[in-house]
Amino acid sequence: xxxxxATTMIESKGLSKYYGPFVAISDISFSIPRGQIxxxxxPNGAGKSTTMxxxxxxxxxxxxxxxxxGLDIRKDRLRAVEKLGYLPENGPLYLxxxxxxxxxxxxxxxxxxxxxxxxxVDYVVDLCSLQEVFxxxxxxxxxxxxxxxxxxxxxxxxxxVLIMDEPTAGLDPNxxxxxxxxxxxxxxxxxxxxxxxxxxxxxxxxERILLVNDGKLMFDGTPEELRKGGSLEAAFCGLTxxxxxxxxxxxxxxx
Length: 255
What we know:
CATH superfamily of the largest domain: P-loop containing nucleotide triphosphate hydrolases
Radius of gyration: 19 Å
Low-confidence stretches: 1-5
Shape: globular
Order of helices and strands: EEEHEEHEHHHEHEHEEHHH
Structural class: alpha/beta
Number of strands: 10
Distance between the termini: 26 Å
CATH architecture of the largest domain: 3-Layer(aba) Sandwich
CATH topology of the largest domain: Rossmann fold
Number of helices: 10
């Protein structure tokens, strides 16, 4: 759970998003302190991406407030995004650029100058292992390498908060393992929120889980608290599809 004595870096206060009669998310509230790695878990269509887009300023909420480092993402967007690195699912990249060109371009847009820009580019290239493809067109890179470029871009300005939406989707097992190692390193100095619907992913990387279903926050606690002596799969099903959980219990699955 969040530590009230720590600096809160990500905060959702009663966030709701409506599209006419459709409720995408409803009254979602949580806070994440500095230095915590949190998995945002839920089935497809549960409201994870909607919440993340609101937290990062890409969507306006129908109700509620999103704060990054104590700054309202709607009212003080420019200052808030200085603290934020965002890796959306299938994040957009300029496919005609090389990673070298893209990182230089976005570094200059972010206001990084000369030695500082070179220092940050060198750091993210090393962290994300981009040396072999540094001067190859992004359009010719594999999905795994494109994800690395996206992560390097999100980290270029050394943000305090890192938010990622389904970052391992489409990666092979080796790429996923490398990604988890990077997150472990980043979690030592940053607040990290990762959206996923993969239970093993949440268990491997996170010290805390937020679970949403049908647009509502259903659970907030540690992986151990979620499984309650059983399996994460059984707990997940119990919170998102009770009928499926009951059927699994009857057949002995999830034990």
